[in-house]
Amino acid sequence: MSAWLNLAKFPDALIIHPGSAIDGAIRQFSRDHRAALASIKAATVWMLNGIEGVLNWVPWWALILLVIWAGRAVSRRWSVGILYGAMLFAIGSFGLWGLMIQTLSIVILSVALALLFGFPLGVMVASSRRLEVAARPVMDFMQTIPSFVYLIPAAMLFSVGKTPAVIATLIYAIVPMVRMTSHGIRHVDREVVEAGAAFGSTRMQLLFMVQVPQALPTIMTGVNQTIMMAMGMVVTCALIGANGLGMEILVATNRTEMARALMPGIAVVFVAIILDRLTQGLIKKGERR
Amino acid sequence: MNAPVSPDVLLSVRHLDKFYGLNKAAARKMLKKGAGKDEILKRTGVTIAVNGVSFDVERGKIFALIGLSGSGKSTVVRCVNMLQRPTAGEILFDGRDVAQMPRDELRELRRTKVAMVFQGFGLMSHRDVLDNVAYGLDVRAPFGGFLHRPWRADRVDRAAEMIELVGLKGWERKPIDSLSGGMKQRVGIARALCCDPDLLLMDEPFSALDPLARRDIQFELLSIQKELGKTIVFITHDINEAFKMGDTVGIMRDGRIEQLGTPADLVLTPANDYVRDFVQSVNKTKFLSVKHVMVSPSCLIRDSADPLTAIREMGENDVSTAYVIGRGMEFMGVVTLNAALRARRENMSSVSSLVTREAPTVGQDVLIGDIIETATDTPFPLAVLNGKGHLEGIVSRAAILSCLS
After folding, report:
1. Which of A4, B145, B181, B255 has a 20 to 30 Å separation from B3 between CA atoms?
2. Nearest to A200 among B107, B124, B125 (CB)
3. Could you tell me if B310 and B340 are in contact, meaning their C-beta atoms sit under 8 angstroms apart?
4. Cα angle vertex A110, ends A109, A116, to 5°?
5. Segment 174-213 of chain A within 8 Å of chain B by CB
6. Rounded to whole angstroms, how far apart are CA atoms A23 and A155?
7. Contact, A103 vs A246, CB < 8 A?
């Protein structure tokens, strides 16, 4: 019986330990590129402070009015706008306005960076069949791996705080942008692209006057997914010291204080709903055109 | 291989091949040995889409290429503007080989000389009607048309002019999705004409339209073509459409042209059974003209002939009408047997006073379809006259009716 148990058990001799090598490599990398990493961190902090500064400078009621107006603009119904405004007001009345601004700043910056890098990457992936074949498993891997795993290298390179949070969120959230941009461009009607070429477009003209405008609804879906993934990740980032709504939830979890975790949890949901519906509305508007 | 191109020929396609697949050399070897398309695909993985296609298109003429789906006709037309790169062969446009053109020259060719109309329209839904029509102008504008596009008056004027030409005035600022299929293809045609190209490539432009819209737009394209004198390569799978539109027609099968010729050539002298089957269903009255079905008159007499001669002539030929010509072969009219018998009784000296002047005549280039009514209304065969009024032949009612079947 014990002989059988020995056979069934995965043998110790076959277990490898790549962990120390990977950790060592990351530490080495961080030592070798200290200056570059420091400037990335400085730039991130600078941008983040800028965004947070603007959001804090805007009066709370102006932000609510803006959300009401935007909600009405995408749905053509005042009731929808007022609902979104009420959600934002509720966050304020929970006493979470400041934390929400911190969370929102990280989301805005990481989404902006994800779009900035993700769009050209998506265009590149769309342009070559081989690149797409190579990129697909990488993107699947990036999207499927538990998001916690991104936190550690980010923290190893940038220590704790908001910078690794932005970097981890960026890496996690860039995937749908690349994927949807590439997918959208690839699936533009063949004859429309042929028509663009047949009338003597250059490659850039074909891309920006035909393919991207035609793929815009799909690309906007990518933007929406990127925002949603960033919103999810930013809460997790509390584990590496990103202040905001996530930190409040983390603290409450550690102390098993249900009520204290619930309010910021609801606030996260509200922010996510508002961001999702506003971007979805933009997509629908694009499709109606 | 390099025979000079006649100045009348705008486009000359010579020995065009297009293979899809990697092992093209092996495929060519098998092709030379006479292997079939399916066998080559199985053995080498190479699809023979176009195989040695040659044809010339004269300026101002419509060349219709017809074949079933998969016969390679769309590939041929896509090679002309290099949407597909030919595997071998020459495509001489105004004497220059399109396949050898550097990229800049090719782009210039596409912008100013060769335009295309697509089966699925290929319109851009993010642009309205006018902006679609002006696309060809936008890509040649400074800064690639990215800047100050909407404010360029010449662009708007030119596009609006084309929209009016295709009968869509008032729809300039409508979104593409609000248009019917026929209207969308009008936009496609306007877009192609907007750059004032020399050659129009039309890839099954009307196949996606319902029959009614199709007839209208065919007619309109023909009148636009007459007005602007554009050279057109027209792809279709409908033999009636091909014969209606084409000055010359090429029938394609399995990547090869089975026969090239005018519609009349194809009907009257089909090269093989495939062509014969293909043209069988076609309505021949639309392109066969009188000269194709006329016969020489069996009973011909001079106007100076006496009634007895006329009667004898008719008797010998077993007919009851004689065609009367004057001294210079000019057609005078017909004499019926009854009139001749009466004249004999009255001892007239010649038939000239008996000639029925109202005998119906017809020119030799008139289409059969246009004379069906006249032919069925008159008791005797129509006289066919040439430009000088000389009698060339006659067309019997039976000959005309046989074209209808």
Report:
1. B255
2. B107
3. yes
4. 90
5. 189, 191-192, 194-202, 204-205, 208-210, 213
6. 12
7. yes
Whole-prediction pTM: 0.79
Q: Which residues of A touch B127 (CB under 8 A)?
A: 213
pLDDT at position B1 over 50: no
Disruptive mutation site among A187, A193, A199, A209 for chain B (greatest number of B CBs within 10 Å): A199
Structural domain includes residue B57: yes
* CB contacts, 8 Å: B108 with chain A: 200
CATH code (residue B350) = 3.10.580.10
Residue B157 lies in a domain: no
Q: How far is B373 from chain A (nearest CA, A)?
A: 45
> Exposed, middle or buried, A3 (CB in 10 Å: 0-12/13-18/19+)?
exposed
What order of strands is seen across the sheet that includes strand B331-336? Answer: B300-302, B321-325, B331-336
Decide: helix, strand or coil at residue B56. Answer: strand
Q: Does B380 fall in a domain?
A: yes
Same domain (yes/no): B225, B275 = yes
Q: Which of residues 253-272 of A touch B (CB under 8 A)?
A: none
With a cut of 90, say whether residue A7 has pLDDT above it.
no
d(C-alpha A120, C-alpha A109), whole Å: 18
Between CA A206 and CA B361 the distance in angstroms is 59
Query: Whole domain around residue B235: which residue ranges?
Result: 9-113+197-282
Interface TM-score (ipTM) > 0.85: no
Nearest residue in chain A measured CA to CA from B121: A191
Helices (H), chain A: 2-8, 19-32, 34-57, 60-75, 78-93, 97-127, 129-144, 148-158, 162-186, 190-198, 203-205, 212-236, 245-254, 258-288
B263 and B392 both lie in a single domain: no
With b meaning 16 or more CB within 10 Å and e meaning fewer, what string describes A264-278?
bbbbbebbbebbebb
Residue A267 maps to which CATH number? 1.10.3720.10
pLDDT digits (tens, 9 = 90+) for A85-132: 999 999 999 989 999 999 999 999 999 999 999 999 999 999 888 999
At residue A221, the 3 state secondary structure works out as: helix
Same domain flag for B294 and B400: yes
The answer as to whether B152 is a domain residue is: no
Confidence of residue B31 (pLDDT cuts 50, 70, 90): confident
Beta partners for B390? B330
- Tokens linked to A196: 């663009």
Domain count, chain B: 2
- DSSP result, A14-35: G----HHHHHHHHHHHHHHTHH
The tokens describing B131, both together, are: 């902006």
Are B358 and B237 within one domain? no
Regarding whether B340 and B214 lie in a shared domain, the answer is no
Scored b (16 or more CB within 10 A) or e, A214-237 reads bbbbbbbbbbbbbbbbbbbbbbbb
Q: In this model, does residue A199 exceed pLDDT 90? A: yes
Domain count, chain A: 1
Residue A255 within a domain: yes
